## 1
Amino acid sequence: YPLHDSARDDDAGMELLQKYLENYYGLAKDVKQFTKKKDSSPVVKKIQEMQKFLGLEMTGKLDSNTMELMHKPRCGVPDVGG
Amino acid sequence: FTTFPGSPKWRKTHITYRIVNYTPDLPRESVDSAIEKALKVWEEVTPLTFSRISEGEADIMISFAVGEHGDFVPFDGPGTVLAHAYAPGPGINGDAHFDDDERWTEDVTGTNLFLVAAHELGHSLGLFHSAKAEALMYPVYKSSTDLSRFHLSQDDVDGIQSLYGTPTASPDVLAVPTTSNPLEPEASPMCSSTLSFDAVSTLRGEVLFFKDRHFWRKSLRTPEPGFYLISSFWPSLPSNMDAAYEVTNRDIVFIFKGNQFWAIRGHEELAGYPKSIHTLGLPATLQKIDAAISIKEKKKTYFFVEDKYWRFDEKKQSMEPGFPRKIAEDFPGVDSKVDAVFEAFGFLYFFSGSSQLEFDPNAKKVTHILKSNSWFNC
């Protein structure tokens, strides 16, 4: 059970990250490829861009501080220009 | 701070807004008040002024909606996205939308409407998000904000002033036209013990006392009033006017003479006037009014005619039923014909000839009898 929950949490986190980066940081929408790309350089760069903008440590990873901030209520306007 | 790509901004300093609908979470007055307060935040640090309109297309259209609401950027139910707004421009641009799946509150027990509105209206004026966590334009909502100590960060101020500049010397005040100099003090009978006024109105925090072709302009910050020709500020306005009153949330002063009335906004004489006083719902037999006052808190305007008065509902934009009523019945102590009336410090000041009555609307009684020129420090 713990393993299952953890996996599910991870999936949910990745989904949130993907949506967050797409909505607010201009990440190209590519649902099928995202899981594979999560460790790729463009995604890491986008995570770092988000972390820098939000004043977080730029780990390039989906750490707990980043997750916490992504769960907070916010303005729907993107953080970066198109 | 950042601005939107291309740095769109309003090419004028007077911006209109309209509250298109309301959230069921709050009384309408609370929504009105939160939006007014949010606009004030930006008004204080720029030359911008705002006025509210109740119908038609405003520069900033404010609405509450859930899910998909016609702009292809649907809201997401409770939490996460609270609101969004569009950069300055025509049509949907400048508009602010609030997710009505949030629980909007006046305090911070839910989502505070003032804080979110102040942020969104920053977008409506051309600011993009700030990366400074202390800035109002930071994208993440901070429920811990102490509302009583709210202020813009320097980053917000730098951002908005990069678009619009700093406030003019006195943003609330009516600038003196270059063609108009104050008249010589001896030309002004302001200290005459028999001085009476045609009309008195506030205008952006000052008080204007109208008499024949002239008016005295009194700021509470300066002891001496200025004395001007009405025509040097507003060439189309009549002399010897009957009444004047300000509707502050629309930034308009209405001027009455005979069966017509005019409207001004600062220096601007508004198009479409004069209109007939009968368009307000006053009876066709009435050919003039004596005095008028609009009470901001109640959103009611009172028209005084001889010993009676009518009351106009500013929200419904219609005359209220049950009027006219006797002035003396509802304003005990105000027994003489009223020349002029205005509001200051929560009191109503009624002018009749060279006398002035200070009326406390809460106690419903006259609290002082003064000379009409008591405001001039003679």
Note: The mean pLDDT of chain B is 91.
## 2
Amino acid sequence: QRSPLNDFQVLRGTELQHLLHTAGPGPWQEDVADAEECARRCGLLLDCRAFHYNVSSHGCQLLPWTQDSPQTWLQRSGRCDLFQKKGYVRTCIMDNGVEYRGTVAITMGGLTCQHWSHRVPNDHKYTPTLHNGLEENFCRNPDGDPRGPWCYTTHPAVRFQSCGIKSCREAACIWCNGEDYRGSVDRTESGRECQRWDLQHPHPHPFEPGKFLDKDLDDNYCRNPDSSERPWCYTTDPQVEREFCDLPSCGPEAQPHQEATTLNCFRGKGESYRGTANTTAAGVPCQRWDSQNPHKHRFAPEKYPCKDLRENFCRNPDGSEAPWCFTTRPGMRVAFCYQIRRCTDNVRPEDCYYGTGEQYRGSVSKTRKGVSCQRWSAETPHKSQFTPTSAPHAHLEENFCRNPDGDSHGPWCYTTDPRTPFDYCALRRCDDDQPPSILEPPDQVLFEKCGKRDPRLDQRVSKLR
Amino acid sequence: VVGGQPGNSPWTVSLRNRQGQHFCGGSLVKEQWVLTAQQCFPSCHVPLLGYEVWLGTMFQSPKPTEPGLQRVPIAKMVCGPPDSQFLLLKLERPVTLNQRVALICLPPERYVVPPGTKCEIAGWGETKGTGNNSVLNVASLNVISNQDCNVKYRGRVQEREMCTKDLLAPVGACEGDYGGPLACFTHDCWVLEGMIIPARVCARPRWPAVFMRVSVFVDWIHKAIRL
């Protein structure tokens, strides 16, 4: 149950502009149900190479050109997705490349290809048609040559030569479990075609591309969004939900750009944690990774050589929120090891302050995360509530850390990071400073309407008890 | 929550990752703001796409059609002051307050909960077999002074932390509850006095439980929401 969209590669939020056709090559067709219908129509037409799909009006515009055609360019668009036939935009070939419609025009030996419409220097029997796609002097495979696309050459002594375009399988290899694989193979190891990630048929699934942006779940290409042992895809065969893809390994298991490992704390999601904590936060001992008891699982150490699944140490082989492990308690399958401290990503304090830092007059101008402070007199990226004129007492010079509002947690500043309005500074309390104790007797407390829960619900539940 | 009972806590929220899995608790302090623990997130600047807050249900795995369930994406994070372990989450839109969803009060700045005050923790975390993992569990705990707490902890408990009384039976927060509330009944209202943070062991019998003291950081909460 393949979708006609399987023949297309999408660029979300993109329009293809043509220098000579600002309004596009033809009218919009509004009577289509969805992008699949557009793909069906375009797929039937030999001179249709791509189409715009309007995500709001659900209309489509068939296009005779792609982003590699002359005088075209891609442009961001708030209303369109651009679908282009894979044969034209993929830089690798599937099988023997008879579908290849790319623009490579150089042979393996570096010779320029002869135009197919020319009979010199090499005469031949081929006539370019829409069907055989013998365009310009691009490499093509009109006779199904097992060595892939080829061309006649402009060198009199070399009649024709293969172009050496890589198969999609060879074009990209995988490190470790292939979570970073971004190649264009769209078939499984049994030869089944992959289902598109942005479709829920024939197999509904949870991996919506929009929710897993970091996994680049493009079109129907093999990917590994759930840290399986290899890249895989759902298949277009209703009887077979998902299968692995057959992809070459890049070699020895170390990943070239692997993050520095940590031992007694973890950074980010803890995927590089290599410490020896081996209980859960609940204090339950972890199960050994090489054991299937009490919990059967798929994270066999030999299948995840890069994840260091030694003994029963807390690890994060699947991109979860933190290091975790299977536990030795039958009733508790997995648990996070949140008791492992997070490595601080704070920078080293550069100065110190007394009390709440209201009198701090130093020139530190960096937040604890190392972000530069915004000038107090500036209005961007954050509108300052405290300015040198509105708070003269606070000595708000330049972008130095200050405490104009008596913040009990120390000097702060507005930051130059648009995502962080304010933050505390790379300062620490001076060693000889003792903050006043807060453990005085409580004073009278007045509250508004919060903090109440519906007594009727409470009663019902207590009955439940 | 270990040693708790199924219960009702309309300000307790469930943090969900993009697979929809519960991984931490939180407290609804404003219609669009939830307080939780920094430990729950890789950092204060992670891509938040797919992370959601679920409210208005008692079930760990509510059906999508469950009435009252509110699922709100998280739009922004604000990291708490140094040593606070606090994290404020701004939601993409305000939640709807109703019978099942309510705000919890914040204490005045530097307010110290009197010893003996009745409090409760709530969460969908690990019960260690003492309760029903599929619903929200609530457990009652009573506050003790830091002085008493430090007898057991040999002075390690800071003023920015607070403690509840040690019990003979294992009762307390556990994995999956972190970031959730220690709510105390004060002057006829429930007030968010503490936040559940990871400890080396869950619900350790005969040991006081330690929480972050919210009143020390309430000025930051107001400032972060205002700025």
Note: Confidence is low (pLDDT under 50) at residues 459-465 of chain A.
